[in-house]
Amino acid sequence: MKLLTLFTSVALASWGAQAWSCLSDADAQGIADASVIFLSHQDIDLANRTAQALFADNIVEFGDSINSLRGDPLGTQVEDNKATYIEDTLSTPPIQQVNTLGIVHSCNQMVWFFEFIGIGPLRIRGFNLITVDSSNKIIEQRVEFNSLAWAINIGFNVTPPATGPFSQ
Ligand SMILES: *[C@@H]1O[C@H](CO)[C@@H](O)[C@H](O)[C@H]1NC(C)=O
Superkingdom, according to UniProt (predicted)? Predict the structure, then answer.
């Protein structure tokens, strides 16, 4: 009887913790909305306050698309410091329009399908696989997007191969 009581209370406690920390639809939408405010940073102070609340202190970010643009080896960690990440992002040109095209989420992860307009002539679409901690703060982002469109938008010269199996 005592054992059963113990098991029951443990089960209830873990269920309670789980339920409390699980992303709701509104939580996931809120994270996407906050990400839009941060990335479009029309108002720097608002974007900063939003980002401070959005990200956990130990946030990390990975993404081959950004590695490719920066010329880093694929798999290189993109961000590992909350303050630097926020400062660096806020000091880059604002993205005029950030659209949310889709959100799916589980308990502690969500995928945000996004679209950037205004970096250059081409729209840029991509996905961010976001993991949150028990307070729903972002601890990890795995971002992949159309970095070829981004590269063309910012002035890279992209030339298709003239010969070979992938020539056009
Ligand atoms: C963002 O907020 C942090 C913490 O309040 C502050 O240290 C930093 O200077 C702010 N950055 C900008 C760009 O406003």
Answer: Eukaryota
DSSP string, 39-89: HH-SSHHHHHHHHHHHEEEEEEEE-HHHHHHHTPPTT-EEE--HHHHHHHH
In a domain, 44, yes or no: yes
Does residue 49 belong to any structural domain of this protein?
yes
> Which residues constitute the domain of residue 80?
23-153
Number of domains in the chain: 1
Tell me the pTM: 0.86
Nearest to 126 by CA among 98, 154, 153: 98
Give the tens place of pLDDT for each residue, 2-35: 555 545 444 444 444 444 569 999 999 999 999 9
Q: Is the CB of 67 under 6 A from ligand 1?
A: no
The token pair at 81 is: 């410091």
